[in-house]
Amino acid sequence: MRHVSFVDNNDVTLLESGTAFFPALIAALDAAAYDVLFETYIFAEDDTGHAVRDALIRAERRGVKVRVLVDWIGTEHRPAARLGAAFAAAGVQYRVFNPWCKRGIARSHRKIVVIDREVAFVGGININDDWLCDHAEHKRLPAPRWDFTVQVRGPLVAQIHDEAQGQWLRAGRLGLKQRIELFKEMRKEPPQSCQYPARAAFVVRDNLRNRSTIQRAYLQALGRARHSVLLATPYFAPGRKFRKALAHAAQRGVDVTLLIGVGEFYIQDAVAHSFYPKLLLDGIKVVEYRKTQLHAKVAVVDDDWATVGSSNCDGLSLFLNQEANVVVLDEKFAASMRAHIERGIADGVPVCAEEFAHVGWLKRASYGAAYLLYKLVMRVFAIGYA
After folding, report:
1. Which major enzyme category is it (predicted)?
2. 3-state secondary structure 341-372
3. 172 and 210 inside one domain
4. pLDDT over 60 (residue 152)
5. 3-class SS of residue 329
6. Residues 139 and 220 in one domain
């Protein structure tokens, strides 16, 4: 398992939801001069998806090398095929991760874009409309989906590029000539960067060398926490180590608050609810976000540690999926992330121990049954979940 390795002199900008992300992404694509590596879980057939697709095609027609990788489960077979046809007609290189689950049930849940090895985007935002539910076609949300991405400049971009390049290679078959060309590209020196303020790390989860790297980053931060922990996640179902780390922090006097999305999937809500009594008993504050679909996977620990990425705090993300996060050690960035999460908490509904104590036995039993089923499935498919 790899350690979290931080590098200095990065500029990391927080982008909230598609309102900030998509204009920045399209502007960067339109300025691309050399190459684009593009990964996403969902690439939707809506106006947002079409705008991003067209920007990628424009880049290819200018002579930019554009490579796009989407997930077969997330984008779905038929939309992925239609997207592939559009890209093929324009000359864009395109691959689908794990079609027909030929390599098991692993998904590429990552959202990564690297442009000219100068700027990268990493986060949780898929290529789809903020106002449309991402698991029910044409269902409009009550408010824009809440999510985040970071734009990165500096030395960290080289690491992100190399990982995206490796994922592209792993996702398909290349002849010897193409492999040599890609190897030459990877050997090129990245552009020299200015002196930016932030220390940052790029952490990924896969089923080879980085099985627990994202969880390790969280556990290290929770173990060092002294004042506060704010964590927002759409789904809460981590393993025992993660839950213990949260409990130990709260027992040390750290103010721990979880902002959890609800209302998307009943079974996922029931699993999260099964943890509530123990979380509350340990002194952890639990707030449910009901304003709209919470898709953000973000956290802030104390005054200088923050993370943004694609990894949920559940068994799928921490033990099965391909995921990618950026961890930032910077007070200014952490303060910005904290302010966003606190606004989310203000829009949420606190879970009170007294109210939860009055939940009927039948519903409590359904929560417990949901957790046992989830745990069984995770133990079958995801090594390490407990």
Report:
1. transferase
2. HHHHHHCCEECCHHHHHCCCHHHHHHHHHHHH
3. no
4. yes
5. strand
6. no
| pLDDT higher than threshold 80 for residue 188 | no
Whether residue 332 is found in the same domain as residue 188: no
Pair (69, 175) in one structural domain: yes
Same domain, 191 and 233: no
DSSP of 143-174: SPPB-EEEEEESTHHHHHHHHHHHHHHHTS--
pLDDT at 178 over 80: no
Same domain membership, residue 17 and residue 55: yes
Residue 263 lies in a domain: yes
Is pTM beyond 0.85? Reply is: yes
Nearest CA to 10 out of 120, 86, 96 is that of: 120
Final residue in a domain of this structure, among 172, 198, 224: 198
- Residue 298's beta-bridge partner residues? 232, 308
Is residue 77 domain-shared with residue 182, that is, in the same domain?
yes
Taking all residues of the chain, what is their mean pLDDT, rounded to a whole number? 93
In a domain, 5, yes or no: no
CB 341 within 8 A of CB 259: yes
Q: Which of 2-6, 70-74, 75-79, 224-228 has the lowest mean pLDDT?
A: 2-6
The residues assigned a catalytic role are 109, 111, 116, 295, 297, 302
